[in-house]
Amino acid sequence: MMAMNGMKIQDTFYISHGSPTLSIDESMPARHFLQSFQQKVYPADAPRPSSILIISGHWETSYPTVNVISDGPNDTIYDFYNFPKSMYQLKYPAPGAPKLAKRVKELLMSSGFKRVDEDKKRGLDHGAWVPLMLMYPEADIPVCQLSVQTDQDATYHYNMGKALAPLKDEGVLIVGSGATTHNLKMLRNTTSVQPWAQEFDSWLKEALIDGRYEDVNGYKEKAPHATVAHPWPDHFYPLHVAMGAGGANSKAQLIHHSWGLSSLSYASYKFTLPI
Q1: What's the superkingdom here (predicted)?
Q2: pTM, 2 dp
């Protein structure tokens, strides 16, 4: 499944998708950032992805699982409650990517992941379709989603990303979708950023830009306020997958930064391997 030379993709991405209202709220800076993805973020001379692999914090399973949708578009899953009615009418009918799903399974299993499951019915949850709807509104690139395993650690997800790195040479865009800080009990409707969130967010930015990926894998011990920033790791592990797929020598770049509800960081990163 090796792509033509011109199809190689150098970058992997981690997107903080934050609140589901990103799908409709024009006042959110992160929405405009994602809408500019094809024009400003993804390199203009880079090839159009042949397909997209997205790792969302909203799909937790015991074993790595891919959605294998081979007959028509992905369903749009509305896994959020008590939001404006218009959000439940949005659709993102991107085609399934069954070949990519099988390739993901093959790469993971050959890298020592003993079991990888296939889900032939599940569509895209809002951690996948909300950012993709803004990044690729045409919904014409096939999409496969991969789950996270919250009973495993960050290094496990980093190794998952390492196993998937060959996909970049096959024209696949790898996107982790989560939230750089994610403590829903600490959200406040104020503009000032809570100090713990600021400190965790700043630590992460410095660690990533300095290439201290081992520290990011060991964030529970290394980062300030780690368990306040992430009482549950579901929204952080997609970062580790994107980081692992980027490569140990990759350069991390902060490509967007904004805050919501006083402690929700929308920090998003690009990982690029030097040519």
Answers
A1: Eukaryota
A2: 0.95
Q: How far apart are CA 56 and CA 143, in angstroms?
A: 12
DSSP 15-50: EE--SGGGGT-TT-HHHHHHHTIIIIIS-TTSPPPS
Cα–Cα distance between 44 and 161 in angstroms, integer?
25
Task: Identify the residue whose tokens are 């991390």.
Answer: 252
pLDDT one-digit tens code per residue, 176-196: 999 999 987 787 888 899 999
Largest Cα span, the chain: 50
Quote the strand ranges of 61-170, DSSP E: 65-67, 117-119, 143-148
pLDDT band at residue 28 under the 50/70/90 scheme = very high
Q: For residues 186 and 197, what is the distance between their CA atoms, to the nearest angstrom?
A: 10
Q: How far is CA 185 from CA 12, 133, 219, 226, 261, in A?
A: 30, 27, 21, 15, 11
Q: Work out the number of other CB atoms within 10 angstroms of the CB of residue 249.
A: 9
For the chain, percent of residues with pLDDT exceeding 90: 84
Torsion from C-alpha of 216, 52, 145, 81, nearest 10 degrees = 90
Which amino acid appears at position 55 of this protein? I
Taking Cα atoms as reference points, which of 218, 207, 197, 215 lies closest to residue 252?
Answer: 207
Closest CA to 11 of 242, 267, 201: 242
Q: Where residue 100 falls among pLDDT bands split at 50, 70, 90? A: very high
**Which residues on neighbouring strands pair with residue 260, listed in sequence order?**
264
- One-letter amino acid for residue 274 of the chain: P
Backbone angles phi, psi at 254, to 5 degrees: -75, 120
